[in-house]
Structure to design on (456 residues):
């Protein structure tokens, strides 16, 4: 048995059902699972000194496109909205290879883990002739860092010749997508409670996927026992597109394709009307809220307050790095908090609500709320520590639940722990040779953008 004792905790914010906060405590993790929380939690093989810091459940990112860390901050698309932005990027993405997927994922995961994330969902939807190896590359990157990964086998089947947005060069045919999706589930999906590897089926969006593929993906996912994810209600352009092509609003369209239910969550979910919120509530369909991306692409403000009031599952996400352009989920909590304060004043989700969205809300979206998203005996030993014993944080910890949103924490965590293993310590990734990874990652990035014609 392996065990880790985290001692000298100033406050442990549990995000449990009663929102308990334990002061001056310790946490014992045995074989990756929280065994005890208390002033004297016992002895362990290894000890981690929290130095009076605040411990939170590991953050869970529910929507990302890790490959986009290699196409961020590109001047030509910097000021565009979604459709024009995508059209400017498809031509770059088609040059992706296995090395790009692996190193771009390392870059994004490093940012996430250093800022408290312990479980990451990645939605990869660009598959070219090298695509057979992309899922392997993603899981290899997550293993190297030590984080839990839900990899969504994304897909695009509606190219320009079928009235879709992407060029035909980045779409695949339905049979190939379904065969590859099934193979990915069989190869990687582990449904056990403390699993590190899960697979999701995730056709990209209504404007890049045929209705046939949407329906067949839903049926395949349900026959294999995996979850469903797609982009929906992100922009007004998308609503117009679906109305024009299908004569329905986006959610009615998805419902007609069997795409609602507690096993479905949508990225963004901004442009839902009152009736559509009730459909989400009735069907238990969830929403991955991506505030920074929504602000950057001028997409709109997700109706989070109303969703929470209706009991609609809401999780937090950084979205792809080409529309964020970072992967810092801790900063996303603060950005979301401020966005809703501006928009809804005293009705906005509280700072503590934003933390809960990023922990147990996110766990619910991924179907992991039996094991992730809370500090509680029997839950996974996934957590992070913020060091508040620094000059700039004096006076910040009166309400530890609110700190990430209300104060914001700009630096790296004191430590990030996944399954009782320290994966980041004071900004240093513990499991990889970081200097070497930086050098390789730069080479791969340069080769890719040169191939794509962005760099000379
Ligand atoms: Zn996205």
């Amino acid at each position: 048995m392996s065990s880790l004792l985290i001692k000298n905790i100033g406050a442990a914010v549990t995000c449990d059902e009663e929102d308990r906060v334990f002061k001056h405590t310790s946490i014992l993790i045995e074989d990756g699972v929280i065994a005890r929380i208390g002033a004297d939690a016992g002895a362990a093989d290894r000890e981690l000194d929290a130095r009076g810091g605040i411990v939170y459940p590991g953050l869970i990112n529910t929507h990302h496109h890790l490959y986009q860390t290699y196409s961020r901050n590109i001047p030509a698309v910097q000021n565009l909205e979604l459709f024009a932005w995508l059209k400017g990027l498809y031509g770059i993405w088609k040059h992706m290879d296995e090395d790009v997927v692996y190193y771009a994922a390392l870059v994004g995961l490093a940012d996430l883990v250093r800022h408290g994330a312990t479980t990451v969902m990645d939605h990869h939807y660009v598959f070219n002739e090298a695509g057979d190896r992309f899922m392997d590359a993603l899981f290899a990157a997550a293993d190297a860092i030590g984080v839990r990964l839900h990899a969504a086998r994304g897909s695009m089947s509606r190219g320009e010749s079928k009235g879709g947005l992407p060029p035909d060069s980045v779409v695949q045919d339905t049979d190939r997508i379904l065969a590859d999706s099934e193979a990915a589930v069989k190869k990687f999906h582990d449904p056990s409670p403390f699993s590190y590897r899960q697979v999701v089926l995730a056709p990209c969006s209504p404007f890049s996927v045929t209705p046939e593929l949407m329906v067949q993906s839903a049926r395949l996912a349900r026959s294999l026992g995996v979850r469903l994810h797609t982009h929906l209600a992100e922009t007004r352009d998308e609503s117009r597109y679906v109305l024009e092509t299908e004569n329905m609003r986006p959610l009615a369209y998805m419902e007609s394709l069997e795409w609602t239910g507690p096993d479905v969550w949508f990225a963004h979910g901004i442009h839902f009307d009152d009736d559509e919120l009730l459909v989400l509530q009735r069907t238990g369909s969830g929403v991955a809220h991506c505030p920074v991306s929504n602000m950057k692409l001028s997409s709109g403000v997700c109706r989070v307050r109303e969703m929470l009031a209706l009991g609609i599952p809401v999780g937090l996400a950084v979205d792809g790095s080409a529309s964020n352009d970072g992967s810092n989920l801790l900063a996303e909590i603060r950005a979301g908090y401020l966005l809703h304060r501006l928009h809804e004043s005293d009705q906005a989700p509280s700072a503590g609500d934003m933390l809960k969205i990023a922990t147990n809300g996110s766990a619910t979206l991924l179907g992991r709320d039996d094991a992730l998203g809370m500090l509680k005996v029997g839950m996974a030993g996934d957590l992070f520590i913020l060091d508040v014993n620094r000059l700039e944080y004096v006076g910040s910890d009166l309400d530890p639940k609110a700190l990430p949103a209300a104060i914001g924490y700009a630096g790296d965590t004191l430590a990030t722990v996944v399954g009782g293993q320290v994966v980041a310590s004071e900004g240093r990734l513990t499991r990889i040779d970081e200097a070497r990874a930086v050098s390789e990652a730069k080479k791969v990035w340069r080769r890719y953008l040169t191939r794509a014609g962005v760099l000379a």
Summary: The pocket of zinc ion is lined by residues 63, 65, 231, 267, 319-320 (CB under 6 Å). The chain is about 35% helix and 20% strand.
